[in-house]
Write a structure and sequence with these properties.
about 625 residues, alpha/beta, 6-stranded parallel β-sheet, 18 strands
């Protein structure tokens, strides 16, 4: 790629903005962080603004840290005086500074509390994670529980959710607790209701900058408006983002905040950074074609001065295994013929469960890889636990069976404590028996433990007896049903739109169909623990959401099929933006892959392929 100038003319104009309100629309790879840090430098060095009067807000701690690193060469020792924080960290500090006493409830405690309250309301059919998400979305839209109940009057199910919301808030209040969404709601309320405090922070932060503005939700927008409204004199509100990259609606983010910015702030100035320093013209042409099909967007043209590169390549597989094999073959060619290294390459997918087939292909052909910010498929807890059940069933009376027993006995939760396990271990040693044998011989006085142990034995014994007649995939199906496993794992997580944990165990069951006995399956899944599957110099595997903000010389966007990308439960325009983010991570070479079947069923290729393919793809 050609060397980037310090600032181009568009960046310079955006960075030179001094007082007032401005939005900077920055296409992928256009240097928005560079522009934002230069603007902070200009305010301090050219306009005499005190660093303490500048507030820079981002949406991740990594982004805040990266911005500080970019500022150090510009501001030297003054960098630490500029407030660069996530918006949640800012709200936390503000509330603490104003004398609020609270602690943050952990996600685990939050789920436990919600589960307990849901039980009281007889909301057994709604997973606790779903309740947490509903309450969180309400808060992100500044809807407290009285308004929530009022909105859903006449809907018995949602009224019960409202009762849980109310009880949840009362419990937290009693215990002086806030959740992360409360930080936003409480800060908004404090600034709105207390003019003196609002004025204090308006005066303190005369210049406010916001990165990734397209990811703001209504509560965050409300806080920002309170901080900047009615200010006079030398002050500014400068936001940077891209409506084409708004991909967090499932967390409550509203693309409308950036689309309507000019209407909300009537006299605001708009800057467009449309010079891309990352990608080849061929890749940008595909990006432009795709996003052109969205109707809710701000028009921009993707420009670059980079030289022409390789055509975008589409790979069609007969099935997922064939798709994976073609990716392996292309990677070999990239290394042997074009001089790339493994770490130059990223595999991006819509949902985590899609990594399984790629990992299997890489393991088989010794392609080193790592799953970015995540676990390899067979290490994921919900997958690993089912494999431990199979390991135990295959050989319960052995040291390996004992090890597996310890991992499964309390999953799903059977309320078995350390005290019980200590007694069981002692009896196992004294009677020279393995743990499961000792368990069945043990006298259990506590009624609820006796009940849970009886249920466990009634599920496990027939599977041990029939293991030679049952194939692994059948056994996984029986375990899922008998243990109510799907229900348990979704209750224990805040579901994403992908229902990732269910999709992961579906993939495990599908993989198990290739094996006729448990040992063969376990030998195969055990092979993924070698160094090939956790090599930081290997190919990067990750979801498109995790790839946001990153770039790679070579990108494969895989699984471009209907139902996956676009996701069957997603908003079409948001799904198109997700695909756009994926393909715009590529610097020199982009591959688009799909297969004719998924999970054993025929599928159509993604409509997004039709939108991207015309005239620019091999």
């Amino acid at each position: 790629m050609e060397k980037r100038p310090q600032l181009n003319e568009q960046q310079r104009r955006a960075a030179s903005f001094t007082n007032g309100v401005a939005s900077v629309l920055a296409i992928p790879g256009s240097g928005k962080t560079l522009t934002m840090t230069h603007r902070i430098g200009n305010l301090i060095r050219k306009h005499g603004v005190a660093p303490e009067n500048i507030l820079g807000l981002t949406f991740t701690r990594n982004a805040a840290a990266a911005m500080k690193d970019r500022l150090k060469p510009i501001l030297k020792n003054m960098t630490s005086k500029v407030q660069l924080q996530t918006i949640h960290a800012f709200c936390y500090s503000l509330l603490k500074s104003e004398g609020r006493t609270f602690e943050i409830i952990t996600e685990k405690d939050q789920l436990t509390l919600i589960k307990k309250l849901a039980k009281k309301e007889h909301l057994g059919k709604i997973p606790s994670g779903m309740l947490v998400r509903e309450i969180g979305l309400a808060k992100n839209n500044l809807i407290r529980w009285p308004e929530f109940k009022q909105m859903h009057a006449g809907d018995p199910a949602m009224m019960k959710v409202g009762h849980v919301y109310m009880a949840y808030e009362e419990s937290k209040k009693k215990n002086l607790q806030l959740d992360l969404n409360d930080l936003l709601v409480e800060t908004y309320s404090l600034l709105k209701e207390n003019q003196e405090i609002r004025k204090k922070y308006q005066d303190q932060y005369s210049h406010i900058l916001v990165d990734e503005f397209q990811d703001t939700n209504p509560a965050q927008m409300g806080i920002l408006k309170l901080l900047v409204s009615g200010r006079n004199g030398d002050s500014s509100f400068w936001v940077c983002g891209d409506d084409w990259q708004s991909i967090y609606a499932f967390t409550g983010a509203s693309v409308g905040n950036i689309l309507s910015f000019g209407e909300v702030f009537k006299n605001s100035k708009q800057f467009i950074l449309d010079m891309n320093y990352r990608s080849t013209p061929e890749i940008l042409a595909v990006c432009q074609k795709l996003i052109a099909h969205n109707t809710r967007k701000i028009e921009k043209t993707l420009r670059t001065q980079n030289t022409n590169g390789e055509s975008v390549v589409a790979l069609a597989g007969v099935n997922e295994e064939d798709e994976s094999l073609q990716i392996v073959n292309e990677i070999r060619d990239l290394l042997e013929q074009k001089g790339y290294s493994y770490k130059d390459i990223a595999i991006l997918y819509r949902a985590n469960c899609q990594s399984r087939i790629i990992e299997e292909g890489f393991s088989k052909f010794k392609v080193p890889y790592h799953v970015e910010n995540g676990m390899s498929f067979y290490s994921r807890h919900e997958v690993k636990t089912l494999l431990e059940y199979l390991r135990f069933i295959d050989d319960p009376v052995s040291d390996e069976g004992d090890e597996a027993f310890r991992k499964i006995i309390n999953f799903p939760n059977r309320y078995i404590g350390r005290g019980f396990m200590t007694v069981l271990e002692e009896q196992s040693v004294s009677k020279d028996k393995h743990l499961y044998q000792a368990l069945k011989m043990m006298k259990i006085d506590v009624p609820y433990l006796r009940k849970y142990i009886k249920q466990f034995v009634e599920i496990i014994d027939p599977l041990i007896r029939d293991k030679s007649q049952l194939e692994p995939a059948e056994m996984i199906g029986i375990l899922r049903e008998a243990l109510e496993y799907d229900r348990f794992i979704t209750d224990d997580d805040i579901p994403s739109p992908d229902d990732e944990k269910i999709a992961n165990i579906n993939q495990l069951q599908l993989a198990a169909t290739r094996y006729s006995d448990i040992k063969s399956l376990l030998n195969y899944t055990g092979s993924f623990r070698d160094e090939t599957s956790n090599d930081k110099n290997g190919v990067s595997l990750m979801t498109i959401h995790k790839a946001k903000g990153l770039e790679f010389p070579v990108v494969f966007v895989v699984g471009l099929m209907e139902g996956l990308l676009p996701h069957k439960n997603g908003d079409l325009e948001e799904e198109r933006r997700i695909a756009f983010v994926g393909i715009s991570r590529a610097m020199k070479q982009l591959y688009l892959t799909y297969s004719a079947t998924y999970a054993g069923r025929p599928v159509k290729r993604s409509p997004f392929l039709e939108e991207m393919l015309s005239g620019s793809v091999e």
